[in-house]
Amino acid sequence: MEAEMREWCVALPKVELHAHLNGSVRDSTLLELAKQLGDRGVIVFEDVKDVIMKNGRSLPECFKLFDLFHILTTDHDTVTRITKEVVGDFAAENVVYLEIRTTPKNNEAKGMTKRSYMNAVLKGLKAVEDVDAVLFDSILRPDETLSRTPVGDLDGVTKKKKIYVRLLLSIDRRETTSAALDTVNLAMEMKDQGVVGIDLSGNPVVGEWETYLPALEHAKELGIPITIHCGEVPNRKEIQAVLDFCPQRLGHVCCLNDEEWKKLKSSMIPVEICLTSNVMTGGAPSLELHHFADLYNAKHPLSLCTDDSGLFSTSLSNEYYLVASTFSLSKAELFRLAQGAVEFAFVDDEVKKFLRAVFEHVARKGLMP
Fold this sequence. Notes:
The protein has helices spanning 2-11, 27-39, 45-52, 59-72, 76-92, 114-126, 177-189, 209-222, 236-245, 258-267, 275-281, 292-297, 316-327, 331-340, 349-364, and strands spanning 14-20, 95-102, 132-134, 162-172, 195-201, 226-230, 249-252, 271-273, 302-304. The protein is α/β, with parallel strands linked by helices and 369 residues long. The protein has a single domain (2-364), classed as Alpha-Beta Barrel (TIM Barrel). Strands 1, 2, 3, 4, 5, 6, 7, 8 and 9 form a nine-stranded parallel beta sheet that branches. Strand 4 (162-172), helix 7 and strand 5 form a beta-alpha-beta unit. Helix 1 packs across helix 13 (316-327).
């Protein structure tokens, strides 16, 4: 039964709204690139080799890999390669819509600007070959919507998988107000190049809300959708401020008190749920005690997400399986959960129409409950 449910969760069309580019790198790619850095004397390869090859990493081990990601992504070609592979990996497990979030890096020593970093990401998106990546500049006729659906193999016909990809630019909590404003302005410049929103993320114990508030307010004035990492640690002042700011989506929302839970539920702001990540980082005490159940039972808008699929050795299919096995959700409930996430995407209505049609097609053909 477990194997059958896992296979079903892979076949289920899915929407991923909270995936960090750097944290979604394949272990095999990470090992190869780390070895190259070791050979060049940039890092000591033996210090990270075992951590890269290990499943079920501890939190300190995860932070060690975060440091490695930071070094790797100061190279344009590496950013392009990672982007290409991440899109392919998500499409392979029938993710039909993917929002990748990443922090544009400014590294003068490496000849990297925020714009050149994002150009490397765009180059990676356009280099995807194994799947049909529908990007911002792709032209898709309505009659093509279901001709190569990402779930085509469910009805016995192997078809090229299709995935819609969009980008979120992340403001890192370590950045200055000026740097955060630069990211928002870059997002505005790139709105016709696949950028659909702004994210606030980074080390939750670093930085002050007042530092990046001007940039977030600027994004709101420009009409750019915003998602914010909220409540990863019990910071009462910031959690209150984030809830008052009322972004379009929130990530994690782990460490809220009773009053804050009440405020969140009344706001109906969609929450990006990352079960494995929350348990591994201590935001939730266990899968069984994860706040998913409370929000789901309250009929709060939710989407299941991976956060960092490579770092936490998970996949979106696995997150759906964990929800099913931990909280006894039926296949029909999982299907509705996946289908509902379409409505929280920052993409335009035309793409949402295509995505709704994918789910309707699957349901109509009886391939899902």
